[in-house]
Structure formats: C-alpha cells, structure tokens
Amino acid sequence: MDLTIETISSETEHQVNLFGDVDAFTGPKVKEAIMALVESPDAASIVVDLANVEYMDSTGIGIFIAVMKACKQTGRVLAVQNLSSRVERLFRITGLYELISIRKGASE
User: Fold this and answer.
1) Domain limits at 42?
2) Integer CA distances (angstroms), 103 to 20, 28, 49, 50, in order
C-alpha cells in the first residue's frame, strides 16, 4: 500500500499525519519526513498521528526508535497519538509503548 504524509506545523508543534502502511517499502519516506522536522530549528515537539495506519512492521518500530534518539539529542519532544489496536499491540510487544509519549487523541 502507498503512504501519504501530511505535516501541520505551528510555532510549538509539528504534527505528522500518516495515511497508509508503514513497512520496508514506505519506511524510508516516513523516516526522511520526520527526521527533517527533528533537525529543523523550529517547533519543540513532534506528534505523529497514526489514526490512519493499520499496519506497521519492524521497519516502523526502527524508525520510531531512531526518531526518539534524535529527539533526545536535539531537545525535541516526540509523541504518537491515535494508535489503532494493531499498532498499539506492536508498540506494547516491543516495549516502545513505555518509551514514547502516547497521546490518546488530538485534544490531549
């Protein structure tokens, strides 16, 4: 499946909305888009909305680990929100659920 990435930026936050699957094929595109925001001089936090991601493989987990480390080095805050039950299960199984800030929705 193809993947669409939408970024909405404000003075304090970049929100990245992903639409599609995060896998070995689409992963490089996701990583490039999010890392560009981590390395940009503006906005202190990055929120990745996964409401429209039903499938993620180990490539996606690797991306979030890399982004989490980069955020730590640059002083950015990383959060994910709106995880489907399948993606949440993957985050829990891998231990990522305890390492990354999880928001339940856009209002938090």
Assistant:
1) 3-103
2) 20, 24, 9, 11
- Count of CB atoms situated within 10 Å of the CB of 60: 26
108 inside domain: no
The share of the chain scoring above pLDDT 70, in percent, equals 95
Provide the whole-model pTM: 0.91
65 close to 27: Cβ distance less than 8 angstroms: no
The answer to the question of residue 45 being in a domain is: yes
- pLDDT tens-digit map of 66-87: 999 999 999 999 999 999 999 9
Looking up residue 65, the CATH number of its domain turns out to be 3.30.750.24
Which token pair is 50?
A: 């996964």
Mean pLDDT of the chain: 92
Of the candidates 42, 48, 46, which has an alpha carbon nearest to the alpha carbon of residue 22?
A: 48
